[in-house]
Fold this protein.
Amino acid sequence: MLRSMSFLVLSCFSALVFAKQPIAIVIHGGAGTINKSQLTEAQEQAYHATLKHAVDTGYAVLERGGSSVDAVTEAVLIMENSPLFNAGKGAVYTYDEGHELDASIMRGDNLMAGAASGLTHIKNPVLLARAVMERSEHVMLSGAGAEQFAKEQGLELVDNSYFDTEFRYEALKKAKQSMQKLPHQAQNYRLKAPWQPEWNMGTVGAVAIDRSGLLTAATSTGGMTAKRYGRIGDAPIIGAGNFADNASCAVSATGHGEFFIRYRVASDICARVKYQGISAAKAADQVIQQELAKVGGTGGVILIDHKGQISWSFNTEGMYRAKRTEGGVAVTEIFKDSPSLP
Amino acid sequence: MLRSMSFLVLSCFSALVFAKQPIAIVIHGGAGTINKSQLTEAQEQAYHATLKHAVDTGYAVLERGGSSVDAVTEAVLIMENSPLFNAGKGAVYTYDEGHELDASIMRGDNLMAGAASGLTHIKNPVLLARAVMERSEHVMLSGAGAEQFAKEQGLELVDNSYFDTEFRYEALKKAKQSMQKLPHQAQNYRLKAPWQPEWNMGTVGAVAIDRSGLLTAATSTGGMTAKRYGRIGDAPIIGAGNFADNASCAVSATGHGEFFIRYRVASDICARVKYQGISAAKAADQVIQQELAKVGGTGGVILIDHKGQISWSFNTEGMYRAKRTEGGVAVTEIFKDSPSLP
């Protein structure tokens, strides 16, 4: 009798505690020139299915009381393991026909963060970013050193060819053809090589809020097709392609990384929320539709603010994206003209 | 007659245009546990002399109508070439007894930026950061790839041993001794290795405003003594160790880089100026003396706001620093109890 009373009290207590913060997760799989004419029906369905699988997996973690750190990790893992996205398997090719991957993760309660760049053998870069956050005293590791750390942490290593896909190799060939048409000097350092969203599209990210109110953001990418010179984009830069702060919002970005670094996109959106008191949705629109759009910076963001409000904003034709909020079902969208968020 | 009239008109016009914005420059050479007992009189004088040389050289560029991009470059070059600072010659040692350097630069009019990390053969990392900003389509390059780009740009390369100094080698030995006292696992990834400001002190930076009102910030460092795993600190992270925006302020930071990344220090200070309308001095104090101090993040910043107001803030015992404003002379300071800024 006492035991069942205790159970009842505990259950009520749990319900009260757990009712505190509605859970939510939002993910993206890259922004760019995506329209109906470029995707077959089968491709479109494949994207919807993988986005749904990823967002549902992250949601399930939250639903069973798991942390948003686990939720975004699980969601990103599914997209990294899918060849559809430019992250993990399916990463774009560098100029030298290899793959160099970047990832980051940040939690909004204590602003702990982890990032890794220039990875060539880490099957799941998001796991390395997380290991950096949780098991090193550093925030950002790079190249061979980062992989040495990954080995010590027992992370799964793969041959660089694991990341190969036919689709991305075709994109590299097209990128190189386009570069050959440029004057010799420009070729050298791609000064004027046009950013082609369709060559690079597919950075992935996830943002979630758990029952404790913890915001976490994660981002993972293969970067830019035909990239050279150890180029680092915005994905592993805390404050650019990823940011989380329980006092404002959590953001994962995708797009032309150089603009996202210069305009410190993720942290600027959160700064507007924190210091101007505007909603995250409005802040994101200001940065993506105004600041970036006027200088030609293409891309988008997904975000959740400290009240648990989900939003996204992109200035491209489409963005692979999905969301799931407390008690609801997964909503997956690709094109700009998809029904907008409620 | 006509010619001298034209000259007169041009001179007046120039005087009017040039009178628009008073010039100013502020530099730092690292923050940390600096007190009278740790410096000999000769060392103290050497620091004052080099800081004065650097700030005067940058000021001279501004005085003759040069850009703040040139001014900060020249000032940083002098500190990189001096063994007194942890940047260029005099950079700290990595765990493997080499040197890996990082630098960044950003201009506040168009938010163009350049950064490079993990450099082992570039004599002057600030020149590579500038080349990335001005002659590549990227913002951040790393490692061997960054050095390949530097070679193509004709930058001066040196053997890694060029960066050697006895003083820094002693610091590495002390750091390793301290690490050996840690439990084996912690040694592996320095999870609990205490940050020792005196081992790492000496990151350099410069911020300037020229007659056109252009703000520029540059930062250069050898990073953290005994660093491993391709660790990247805040110096080459736009928004963390360096940021410039004519709409708010320009900042160069020095300190425990992991905190400066997580708290996106440079961009947060500028965000407070931009969105809260407070002075850069107040914003810097909020971030350095409150946000960072309460979590144990040691270091400091130098900054100039969009009105040309110079300030600095540090939560350590000292910060090597100097400033020079329109019509004034160089002021160099080291300790906390130096007369504060007017």
In short: Chain A has one domain: 20-181+193-335. The two ends of chain A are 47 Å apart (CA to CA). The longest strand of chain A covers residues 24-32. Residues 104 and 236 of chain A are 5 Å apart (CA to CA).
